[in-house]
Amino acid sequence: MGGVSVEQAFELFSAAAPEGWRVELIEGEICVTPPANGEHEEIVSEVNHQVGRKVRDDSLRNFTGIGLTVPGSSATGHVVPDLVIAPKGSFGDQEEWHEPSPILLVAEVTSDSTAAHDREKKIRGYARAGIPVYLLIDREEWQVTVYSEPSGDEYAKGAQHKMGLAVPLPAPLGFDLDTAEF
Q1: What is the pLDDT of residue 3?
Q2: Sheet (strand 22-26) strand order
Q3: How many C-beta atoms lie closer than 10 Å to residue 170's C-beta?
Q4: Which regions of the chain are under pLDDT 70?
Q5: In 3D, which of 28, 48, 182, 22 has the Cα closest to residue 107?
Q6: Which secondary structure element, helix H or strand E, spans residue 46, and what is its range?
C-alpha cells in the first residue's frame, strides 16, 4: 500500500471488515479480530450483569462495542474494549471513536488472538488515557488482574487474583466481582 499512512490503511481495513469483526489500531499496528466465542461472551455478560447489580449509582452505564481513541506510538490509537463503564451520556454523539476521559473502567477478556495486546499494549494505552481501572480477565493464565492508579505509560497497582475468587474493584466502583461465576 505505497504512500498510504497507517491511519488510512486502518480506515480501509475497518471499512472492509466483515460484520462482527473488530479492527483496532494499537500502537501503530492494525489488529483484526474475529467475533468472540461463547465463553468469552459469557464472561463479558457476567461482568456486565454484576456491575449492573452492584453499582448503586444510576448515572453509570455499561457499554460494549464502543470505540475509544487512546494515546499510542502512532498519531492515533483506536481500540474497542470488551466492556466500558462510564457516566450516562458519555457517548451520546454520532462519533465512532470517543475520548476516554469520562471512563471509570475498561475490561478486556483475553482470546488467543488478543491476549498479547490485552496484556501489554492496551495496558499502556489505557494508562496514558488516565482510565482509573483496567480489568484484565486472562483466560489463558486463569487469573484476573485489576490495574489501578494510572501514571504515564503504566498503572501503579496491578493486583492479581486467581479466577474463581472474589476480586475487589477499587474506587470509583468499590465492590467485589465474583469470578466464580466465570
Answers
A1: 83
A2: 29-33, 22-26, 78-79, 67-69, 97-98
A3: 16
A4: 1-2, 73-75
A5: 48
A6: helix 38-54
| pLDDT of the residue at 54 | 86
* Cα–Cα nearest to 80, from 53, 47, 118: 118
Tracing cell 476516554 back to the chain, one arrives at 100
Grid cell locating 42: 459469557
The upper half-sphere exposure of residue 128, i.e. CA atoms within 13 Å in the direction of its Cβ, equals 18
CA distance 134 to 68: 14
Task: Give 153-171 pLDDT, tens digit per residue.
Answer: 999 999 999 999 999 999 8
Rama region for 164: left / alpha / beta (φ>0; ψ in -120 to 50; rest)? left
Q: Is the pTM of this model over 0.85?
A: yes
